[in-house]
């Protein structure tokens, strides 16, 4: 039997849903889930590298709009999008603020920097969250010819995300049981947060060390291995790459015709 679980089965010990709000085999509504993870990664990489030369808001805005249109078909629930996308939104806003305060193009340049960063980050986030970790590693090895050792590392890292989330919850509850609470003191709140973060870092290093030892003991990455599953490349995967390229061309074309296209170091 394969590891084909629904979103209701993919929960942390605390009961929180991890990533998808859709069956892992996709379906008509969540068709993006059923695509090859290698194709989704290549499409995200194509969009990210393609946006590097453009620093205006229109080019990045078109790509960002296209990525937002894909969200309903990715099976990503709102809570996961808020938790995982929040840091990227914060980075985009802070990047825009810095460019507004110290940049040479004022508000227009700040908006372009913020939109560009979000347009680069969102496709990668969709590709990662809408893909099963096992299928992701299979696609990396079989389709993208990534060496087995880093591919297995990616699989292990994705599988450990729920464990780290549960460990963060355990650390928080343990400190609360000892009476270590910030109350309404913002300084103490920041201090306790970084204390919990350091404890989580220590636990993650210990877990990673044990996992690396176990993987070395099983000879991961030391030679050719048989495949339990075959990573299939379908016509829809090719169409996804073609769609990403067309979206990029449309973004540059629209920006050039509107006269808003600004290239890096121009």
TrEMBL record:
Pfam families: CbiQ. The chain crosses the membrane at residues 41-69, 81-103, 109-129, 239-265. It comes from Nocardiopsis sinuspersici. It comes from the Bacteria. GO terms for cellular component: plasma membrane. InterPro entries: ABC/ECF_trnsptr_transmembrane (IPR003339). It is found in: Membrane. CDD domains: EcfT. This is Cobalt ABC transporter. PANTHER family: PROTEIN ABCI12, CHLOROPLASTIC.
